[in-house]
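Me: I hope this is not a bother. Any chance you could explain this protein sequence and its structure tokens? It all follows right here:
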Amino acid sequence: METPLNIPGYKIKKELGSGGMSRVYLAFENKLKRPVALKVLLPHLANNSRIKRRFIKEARTAAQLRHSNIVSIYDVGKEKDSYYISMEYLKESLKDRLRRSSSLKPEEALHIVKETAKALSYAHRKGFIHRDIKPDNIMFRGDGAIVLVDFGIVKVLKSATRLTKTGVSIGTPKYMSPEQVRASRIDGRADIYSLGIVLYEALVGRAPYKAEDVIALAVKHAEEPVPQLPSRLKYYQPLIDKMLAKAPKDRVKNAEGVIRLIDAINFKVKQEKEAAATKSIKTRGKPRKPFLKYFIIILAAAGLVAGCVFLIAKFFI
């Protein structure tokens, strides 16, 4: 039986979720009187030096990245055999939102992707590649702000430290870039590809590639053509094309480029909607003149008939 978790300074409320490396709890920080998410390394992994270094690295990486769209780290520590990270508590993820409504309105999907791109732009400039962009790791604050979380498998550019073996794929298969599934050298464009898969899923309500197993899914990411959006979403296909290009050299170069593309698409959509609205107003206004014309003709005809009746009546009566 597992020993109940006890970390001084925190009152554990409930478990929020778990993964292969850690469990996350909702806790109350006694000193500052606030709820926190407490991420705790699984006990049986506490003696694994490689995993322990990766866990501590996550806290240190996120703590270096001070940005409004990146989760805030409050504390990192060890209590007996429990290694933990105390961080900002966030209730809802994009995965939760998609589970409830399947797909999102294009405006909402683009806003979420744009805000996530801002977080990636900052992280990439600081020399960090996230490597695990997916709906689970895009979360929302109470005010609706988008927050990127989970830097557990982040890659540090130009780092001499290697925490993963050469030739090993790292990430979530459903969202991994072709270069990740091949275990090739990667840069920030791998995150852009993963974010493109997230965008497709948010727009359509499902991921673009499905397969019976992980290997078959990896092959689809590496070799199948860029997925096509339904015709009702045609405005956004150029963005999907640039984010999901198979070769990194054909992909949008950086997260700032994603932001610019989204702004350009939003501007184009707004212009076309305004033009359509103006055309509709003009069309609705056109029938008024013929109607007035016909009304006058009818009145004149009625007057003529009435005059004739009056003359006939006067002549014969």
